[in-house]
Amino acid sequence: MPEKIYKGELVENRIVVWNLESSRKIFSDKYFGKPLGIPKPKGDDFNAPLILDLIEGYHLLEKKKIKIFDNKTGKLVSKRKLYEKCEKEYTMFKEKSMVYNELRRLGYIVTPGIKFGSDFAVYEHGPGIDHAPYIIQVMIPESELSATGIVLAGRLATTVRKKFLIAIADDRRKQVEFLSFDWWRA
Question: Which of 123, 125, 134, 174 is catalytic?
Answer without folding.
Answer: 123
